[in-house]
Amino acid sequence: xxxxxxxxxxxxxxxxxxxxxxxxxxxxxxxxxxxxxxxxxxxxxxxxxxxxxxxxxxxxxxxxxxxxxxxxxxxxxxxxxxxxxxxxxxxxxxxxxxxxxxxxxxxxxxxxxxxxxxxxxxxxxxxxxxxxxxxxxxxxxxxxxxxxxxxxxxxxxxxxxxxxxxxxxxxxxxxxxxxxxxxxxxxxxxxxxxxxxxxxxxxxxxxxxxxxxxxxxxxxxxxxxxxxxxxxxxxxxxxxxxxxxxxxxxxxxxxxxxxxxxxxxxxxxxxxxxxxxxxxxxxxxxxxxxxxxxxxxxxxxxxxxxxxxxxxxxxxxxxxxxxxxxxxxxxxxxxxxxxxxxxxxxxxxxxxxxxxxxxxxxxxxxxxxxxxxxxxxxxxxxxxxxxxxxxxxxxxxxxxxxxxxxxxx
Length: 409
Prior knowledge:
CATH class of the largest domain: Alpha Beta
Order of helices and strands: EHEEHHHEHEHEHEHEHHHEHEEHHHH
Largest sheet: 7 strands, mixed
Oligomer: single chain
Number of helices: 16
Number of strands: 11
Low-confidence stretches: none
Number of domains: 2
Distance between the termini: 64 Å
Radius of gyration: 23 Å
Structural class: alpha/beta
Shape: elongated
Strand order of the largest sheet: 3-2-1-4-5-10-11
């Protein structure tokens, strides 16, 4: 029986999933291996009758440049008892599988880490290599290396963001845009910077003060007031959905939203429009201030997860897929495949990235870097101390909307 490789995709989709799967398939088939695609993520490994299929060159060649994921994805996360009672070792033995390739984000990486430990403890001769994806760009890869899917999602978001900004300018309105990003603000910041939005709100900005609903709203109003002084009647603000994750329970209640939670304990932000919530809060405050400003909500979320990958991710994901074979041929396991900025493939061991709980912590936006601070200092529009006098006839307390005071910077 041929030696085989199994591959699964976990979590939510990102542009480039099929590129990785297709590249892994083409590479290993050329080396004489059988490639098995496992549907429904990790649930297949803890199921006596997993759904899987052989992947051949023609399937790989058809899917590699497509959006979405040919292999059905799942957010299934096994319990400790699942490992002892339900792990389907016979699936590996019966198919002569020597390598499990997992493709996913932080939760998928954390589970891959658990599987690697489990296999090692049980002396099962199965290698495990993880390919890091997420449009959130929040896996802790070295030297700012992006997770695959981020660049394509940013490009797709920027297409929407530019159209929104043109609408704002055309109609003399303001738009409140919400962007995906569960733990970090990379996507919202990238889109906002690309579109020269006058206000960007991400959780990392609140590094010196607590995030509150009032502060989020006041930051947007700060941009509206500043542009009034500039004689500009339009604009757009982009807010990362991740600010909800950092809000206290009391603050979430103030937002007026009752969230349901997924199996991992994360608020199910995808079920509600964050842009609508932010916009409602903003309109209430504007009315209270007697400011005549029209605002409209726009959500950037699921629209960018399954879009066609751009050239960057097509090349990057192909390199990662081929890199899986390189690491496997070198005997590496329990690691992520890493492609350095200078083009070198190397292993990034999950055990070296985990925290004390065994989870892979998110990589946050480096708010102190020149790359980020230049945008805050030069592209955004907001109230400063020098604007207090000019705003006295517009609002009663201009200092309340001072960007740096709000953030305690």
